[in-house]
Amino acid sequence: MSAEQIEWQRSSFSGGNGPNCVEVGAHDGQIVMRESDDPSIVVTTSREKLAAFILGVKAGEFDHLVKACQ
After folding, report:
1. Residues whose CB falls within 8 Å of the CB of residue 20, separated by 6 or more in sequence, listed in order
2. Do residues 7 and 25 make contact, with C-beta atoms less than 8 angstroms apart?
3. Are the beta carbons of 19 and 37 closer than 8 angstroms?
4. How far is C-alpha 18 from the chain's CA centre?
5. 23 against 70, higher pLDDT
6. What are 22-60's pLDDT values in tens digits?
7. Where do the domains of the chain lie?
8. Rounded to the nearest 5°, which phi and psi values hold at 16?
9. Whether the Cβ atoms of residue 7 and residue 32 lie closer than 8 Å to each other
10. Can you say how many angstroms the Cα of residue 49 is from the centroid of all Cα atoms in its chain?
11. What does DSSP assign to residue 62?
């Protein structure tokens, strides 16, 4: 997999083109994620696993992790 072949997308909540962004894309039916400040490390997961994670985020299951950083 070449990162150049992937159309990476950032959240509009990430502050634009700064270094604090998580980027996501699709490759061969899988979801790929990377951090903008270290794009050499790419994590791959399934659409189903990402969907379950997003549902957890929407339900507030991970809010305690974000609050610890504020």
Report:
1. 14, 36, 37
2. yes
3. yes
4. 15
5. 23
6. 899 999 999 999 988 888 899 999 999 999 999 999 999
7. 3-67
8. 85, -125
9. no
10. 12
11. T
